Amino acid sequence: VEIVESGGGLVQPGGSLKLSCAVSGFPVSSSSMSWDRQAPGQGRELIATVSPKGITSYADSVKGRFTISRDNAKNMVYLQMNNLKPEDTADYYCLGRGIYWGQGTQVTVSS
Hints:
Structural class: mainly beta
Order of helices and strands: EEEEEEEEEEE
Largest sheet: 7 strands, mixed
Distance between the termini: 37 Å
C-alpha cells in the first residue's frame, strides 16, 4: 500500500488550493478515505471523509470551504480548499481505510 499526497504550498488568505492523494494497493472506490491535518504544535484533526457510498462529512472548522472528492478510475482522492485562512496552516495527510497514511503535504496560508 502506498499513499502519496501532493499539491500543498504557500497561499494568501482567501486563496484556494487543491490537494491530491494518489493511492495504490487498494481501491478508493470501496474504501473510507479521509483527510486530516496537524498544525504546528497541535494534534491531528480529522477534517473530511468520503465513505465507500460517497457520503461526505466535514469538521466544522472547514465545512462550507473544503470539498473532498475521489476519482475511482484514477484511484485518487482530492481536497479542494477554498477561502483559506491562516489557521488552515498545517501538514495535511490522506488517510485510507483508517489505517494507511501518506507522508503529508504542507499548506501555509500567509500574506
